C-alpha cells in the first residue's frame, strides 16, 4: 500500500507528461499543494481515456478526499415542515449521498476548464474525476451539437457519493431583470431534471433525492419576477417585486444623503451592461475557436495553454478588441456615473474593460485591481512599466490567419527581450 504522497507524485508525473509545456512545472512538497495541482491539471485536461493504473490511483485519492470531507445522507437532513417531500440543506453538494445531484453546466457540457475555479461545475467534475468529462464528451459527440438551454443530460457520479449527476444548462440574464423567456427556460431546467430523475427511477417522489445547485436566493428572486412561476418563500431571503422596488428607492435615498461613496464592481456589472462572455455574440465572434478548442466562454479561453506565442497572441488580440477597444461606454455604466458624478466617489473594480473610464469616471478615482486589457507588460515582470497594446492588437488582427499570426507581430519585452503579457494580475506581480 503506497502513501498518499507517493500516489499524488505518480498521478502528477502522469498528467504533467501529457503536455510538453508542463515540463517546467515542479511537483510541490506539501499534500495540500499536490492536491491543488492535481485538481488544476484535471480541470484543464481535455477529454481523453486514462490508463487503468492511473485511474485506479485517481479513484483512491478522490475516495480519501471524500472520506475527509464527510458524506451527508438524505436521512440526516430534516424534512421541511411545509412539505415532508422537500428538504433544505446548505453546504458542499459533492458531499451528498443521494440518488442524483444537479450540475449547473455550460452548453458544451464538459465542465469548467478554469484551474481551481470555485463554480459548482468545477467542484462536481473535480470530485467525480476525469471519467466524468470523458463521458460528457462521448454524449456530446453522439448528440453532435451544444446542449440547448433548459435541457438536461444524466451521467454516473463516479467518485461522488451521489449515484448520478444530472447536468442542465441554465439561462444567462443579459440585463438587470430576467425576461419571460429566461423564466420559461429556468422552469424547463427544473422540469427536465425531474423528468430524467423519474425516467431513471431515482426516487419514489419526483424531487426527494434531487439536490438542485441553483441558489435559493436566485430562485426566489426569479420566481417573484416571473408571472408563470410560483413564488418561493424563504425565511432568510424572501423577495417580492414590491420590497425589491422599496430597496431600490432606499438605495437612491442613501446615495443622495451620502458624504462619500465607494463603488465595488466585478464581472457581473459588465455582464448586466451587455458585454457577452458566453452568449450569442461570443459564439459568433469566436466560432472558429469554439469549433477547434471547444471553449465554453471567453473567460475559459484566456487560460488555455497555446503551444506558441503566435497562437496565444492571435487569440488575445481578438479577445482584447472584442471586450476592451470595440465597445463604447455601456448605458448601465453611464447611468451609474450620472447617479454619483456630483458625489465624492471612489471605484474599486476587478473589471479590465475600462468601462468606468469610458463612462466618464475620473481615472484618478478608479482602482482597477486586476489591470487593464488596454495595456501589456513583461511576462516575467522584469520591470514595472506598462505599455499600450492598441497598436499591437490592431497589427495582429490585420495579419492573423488560421488562428495564428506571423512571429514579427508578436510583442517582446523591450528590456529583457522575453515574452509580453496582457496587463492582468499575475501570481507574483
Keywords:
429 residues, alpha/beta, four-stranded mixed beta sheet, three-stranded parallel beta sheet, 12 strands, 42% helix
What does this structure look like?
There is one protein chain. Strand 4 (152-156) and strand 5 form a beta hairpin. Helix 1 crosses helix 3. Helix content is 42%, strand content 12%. The longest helix has 20 residues, at 180-199. Mean pLDDT is 87; it is low at 204-241. It has 16 helices and twelve strands. The strands form four sheets. The protein has a four-stranded mixed sheet, with helices on both faces. A three-stranded parallel sheet has the order 7-8-9. A three-stranded antiparallel sheet has the order 11-10-12, covered by helices on one side. It has 429 residues and is α/β, with parallel strands linked by helices.
Summary?
It is built from 16 helices and twelve strands. With about 425 residues, the chain is of the alpha/beta class.
How are the elements arranged and paired?
Elements: H1 4-16, H2 31-44, H3 52-69, E1 72-73, E2 96-97, E3 100-105, H4 120-128, H5 130-143, E4 152-156, E5 164-169, H6 180-199, E6 210-211, H7 216-225, H8 241-257, E7 260-265, H9 267-273, H10 280-285, H11 287-293, H12 298-301, H13 309-325, H14 331-340, E8 344-349, H15 355-359, E9 366-368, E10 371-378, E11 387-388, H16 390-399, E12 420-424
Parallel strand pairs: 1-2, 3-5, 3-6, 7-8, 8-9
Antiparallel strand pairs: 4-5, 10-11, 10-12
